């Protein structure tokens, strides 16, 4: 039989010691200040030692408290990890995702931190490959690739993303005040931000929705759309984006769509992985958590076997 004080007392002690404040510990654990004081006092009585010393409104740990805190933190971390393993079997080790630069820059960083916190047994690696590459990254568990059509991925499990469309986005400040951006014709006065070297994507959008527009006098070209979006956030100009690369900025209002008109992407994103990994819990858990499944075609039904 293990001789242990109540777990509730150890949790109260750990929270109070970490915050150096009983009130903040009470807020974290959703109990009263007096409940924390009672639990700490009961723990001190059980251990027959003093764990805290008052210094004004804050508390400081004694030497015994410092020693105990280190061990209790390790024990709670181990218990949390064990519970996570029990609830989510197979969620240990590492998960490596390789994405084109624009998605690695704009989309994935928003979710990896929260995913790692949810599954502490997993170490997540975000790898970056060239936006034009159609080669599966052998170092990755999941590779996201952009291609004009299905490439030669015969040996892999392939899930196409739903078709994406491009639309103009800009900083809200560009549609306010005099000489603001109000209609497609106004684009002639603004800098167009490109994610390609030849301006083909913007040329396609302008050809369909603003054919009479004279060529904009100012153009900036970037290596990928992630950098173009960053320039748009800095009010440099207007860029073309999609729901994957600019979704979060549109939700928060940091970017807006000045016009509703879109053009279809000439290519599509594909999720590619080794077939043997298709049913691994860590892969499906990440895609669910990252919100990728709404973007994937028939993720839960048989995947393209090529």
From TrEMBL:
Residues 5-62 form the HTH lysR-type domain. Keywords: DNA-binding, Transcription, Transcription regulation. PROSITE patterns: HTH_LYSR. Gene3D superfamilies: Periplasmic binding protein-like II, Winged helix-like DNA-binding domain superfamily/Winged helix DNA-binding domain. GO terms for molecular function: DNA-binding transcription factor activity; sequence-specific DNA binding. GO terms for biological process: DNA-templated transcription. Pfam families: HTH_1, LysR_substrate. Signal peptide: none annotated. PANTHER family: HTH-TYPE TRANSCRIPTIONAL REGULATOR, HTH-TYPE TRANSCRIPTIONAL REGULATOR TRPI. Belongs to the LysR transcriptional regulatory family. This is LysR family transcriptional regulator. It comes from Paraburkholderia pallida. The lineage of its organism: Bacteria, Pseudomonadati, Pseudomonadota, Betaproteobacteria, Burkholderiales.
């Amino acid at each position: 039989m293990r001789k242990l004080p109540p777990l509730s007392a150890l949790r109260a002690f750990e929270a109070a010691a970490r915050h150096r404040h009983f009130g903040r510990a009470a807020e974290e654990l959703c109990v009263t200040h007096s409940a924390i004081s009672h639990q700490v006092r009961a723990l001190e009585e059980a251990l027959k030692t003093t764990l805290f010393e008052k210094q004004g409104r804050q508390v400081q740990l004694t030497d015994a408290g410092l020693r105990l805190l280190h061990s209790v933190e390790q024990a709670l971390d181990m218990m949390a990890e064990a519970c996570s393993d029990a609830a989510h079997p197979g969620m240990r080790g590492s998960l490596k995702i390789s994405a084109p630069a624009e998605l690695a820059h704009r989309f994935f960083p928003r979710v990896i931190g929260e995913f790692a916190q949810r599954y502490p047994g997993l170490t997540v690696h975000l790898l970056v490959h060239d936006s034009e590459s159609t080669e599966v990254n052998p170092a990755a568990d999941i590779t996201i690739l952009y291609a004009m059509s299905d490439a030669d991925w015969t040996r892999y499990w392939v899930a196409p993303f739903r078709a994406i469309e491009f639309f103009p986005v800009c900083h809200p400040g560009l549609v306010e005040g005099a000489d603001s951006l109000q209609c497609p014709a106004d684009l002639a006065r603004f800098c167009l931000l490109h994610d390609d070297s030849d301006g083909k994507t913007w040329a396609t959008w302008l050809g369909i929705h603003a054919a009479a527009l004279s060529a904009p006098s100012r153009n900036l070209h970037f290596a990928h759309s992630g950098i173009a979006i960053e320039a748009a956030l800095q009010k440099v100009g207007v860029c073309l984006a999609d729901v994957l690369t600019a979704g979060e900025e549109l939700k928060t209002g940091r970017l807006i769509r000045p016009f509703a008109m879109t053009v279809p992407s000439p290519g599509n994103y594909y999720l590619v992985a080794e077939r043997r990994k298709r049913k691994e819990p860590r892969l499906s858990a990440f895609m669910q958590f990252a919100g990728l499944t709404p973007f994937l075609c028939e993720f839960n039904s048989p995947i393209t076997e090529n």
